[in-house]
Amino acid sequence: MRTPRIVTVAVVALAALVSPVPAQANAGFSPGAPGAGDPYFPDMGNGGYDVSHYGLELRYDPATRVLDGKARIAARATQNLSRFNLDFLGPLTIDALTVNGASARYVREGAQELVITPRSGLRNGSRFDVEVRYHGVPQQIDDPELGTSGWVATEDGAVALNQPFGAATFYPVNDTPLDKATYGYRLTVPNGLVALANGEPGPSRTKDGWTTSTWSMTQPMASELAMVAIGRFTVHADATNITAIDTALDPNDEQGVPFHTLTAEVQAWEQTIFGRYPFSSTGGIIDQVDVGYALETQGRPVYDQIDAELDTSTIVHELAHQWFGDSLTPKKWADIWLNEGFATYAEWLYSEHSGGRTVQQIFDRVYAQKPDAAVWQGIVADPGRDNIFNSLVYNRGAMTLHVLRQRIGESAFYTLLRRWATEHRYGNVSTSDFIAFAEKVSGQQLDDLFQVWVYTSGKPAL
To answer: What three-state secondary structure class fits 207?
Structure first.
């Protein structure tokens, strides 16, 4: 939940020593954009290409906190490229960089730009591969408004949490939700530690005091949802559910089985509301990360130190994100209510389903807040960069869905939820997309409702 712009470590410009690119080689070619166009985070992401796959080989020693990495990036040019950028933060040092197997020039600029100039231009539509070898001690990002993100060292390992930014703290990346890709991980850690990631586990091996694990996420994933967790974990796994809990939090494995079971039960219930689960397995990781939040990392959310009793509402929230936020990802960060409002409403629905407060009771309780309460301040569909994790986005977003449900009726509303999740699976969506889809499904004109609830500040009249 978290711009690399605020990282305090100075980034020193470096350049690879290779032959200069002949001017004629790039005639008719132009540089890719140094940003993806999001007004909240203009430095994030890049233009001119589309990544299809990241292959990450990471070796991490918690004793020294040194990360040795190799990133292999498969991409396709979307214009005639003379050069292109990746997002990559210091103090990680680049040891070698190639494009299509040949050494390429590179320079590091600004807060996070890695500017790469291949030996010859990359033609529009052509596929190319980038390999970057690097090492160093990754530094987490601590944003005054959005909190901690990136590679977060823990007492026995590390956890990578990248929302809204943070991926560039441990690998070179096109860090925009608009460029989803598949991922493969090869994680090497000292014997006795467990390394987890998104997706499904593959072969592992132990040699010379180190254990290497492999993981694969074969469904498209935004970089803000990539996850690595290293530490001492008790793991429970079956064919479609992989959960893990820090052994320091649960030394006698009293929480592990209930957590595993509850995760499966919540996912099964959510499928009855939202349709088929979009990924090949579910799960979750409980660790002592000390970031103060849980995060919907794709397929396997991370929960920060749930050590007293299982927080069911948080599990419901993060698993609902697998449909809304992970499979369906906003085009712009301004549209994050399409993540958080839906996941919050899932909490309300589950409360009623499990015999707690009804959805209407929760709505009434939130609505009873005074006009100067935070939930009424700002615009849901454009909350501002520093407010993307505020009550306005979560609770007023959920209230918008409830008002919509009352307006279009039960049948149309639940049809809308399922079709919205199914017909936009693995894509990017916007507020205007949702409004148009809601009107299509319901057969009603809904501009007035959304104008009041997501485009206007202040407490709406009922």
So the answer is: strand
DSSP string, 226-251: --EEEE-EEEEEETTEEEEEETTT-T
pLDDT tens for 243-268 read 999 999 999 999 999 999 999 999 99
- Go through the chain and tell me how many residues it has: 462
- The model's pTM is 0.93
Nearest-angstrom CA–CA distance, 43 and 393 = 23
Residue 22 CB: number of other CB atoms within 10 A? 10
d(CA 294, CA 327): 18
Torsion of CA 412, 415, 420, 424, to 10 degrees: -140
Residues 164-204 have pLDDT tens digits of: 999 999 999 999 999 999 999 999 999 999 999 999 999 99
**Cα(202)–Cα(186) distance, integer angstroms:** 9
Beta strands 205-207; 210-221: pairing state: antiparallel
pLDDT band at 327 (very low <50, low <70, confident <90, very high): very high
The conformation of residue 370, written as its DSSP 8-state character, comes to: -
Q: Each residue of 124-143: pLDDT tens digit?
A: 999 999 999 999 999 999 99
CA atoms of 33 and 47, how far apart (whole Å): 4
Instruction: Say if residue 22 is preceded by a cis peptide, omega within 30 of 0.
Output: no
DSSP state of 295: B
Question: Rounded distance, CA 180 to CA 98, Å?
Answer: 22
Q: How many other CB atoms are there within 10 angstroms of residue 70's CB atom? A: 18
What are the two backbone dihedrals, phi and then psi, of residue 433, each rounded to the nearest 5 degrees? -60, -45
Chain-centre distance for alpha carbon 292: 17
Is 340 in contact with 330 (CB distance < 8 Å)? no
Q: Which residue has the tokens 């990133």?
A: 71
To 5 degrees, how large is the angle CA 441–CA 442–CA 443? 100
In 3D space, the residue among 396, 400, 394 whose CA is nearest the CA of residue 416 turns out to be 400
Q: Chain centroid to CA 227: how far? A: 8
Alpha-carbon distance 383 to 174, whole Å?
A: 24
Please report how many Cα atoms fall inside a 13 Å half-sphere around the Cα of residue 59, on the Cβ side. Answer: 11
CA angle, residues 371, 372, 377, in degrees to nearest 5:
95
Whether the CB-CB separation of 175 and 45 falls below 8 Å is answered with yes
3-state secondary structure of 215: strand
Beta bridge partners of 109: 113
The predicted model gives 53-72 an average pLDDT of: 98
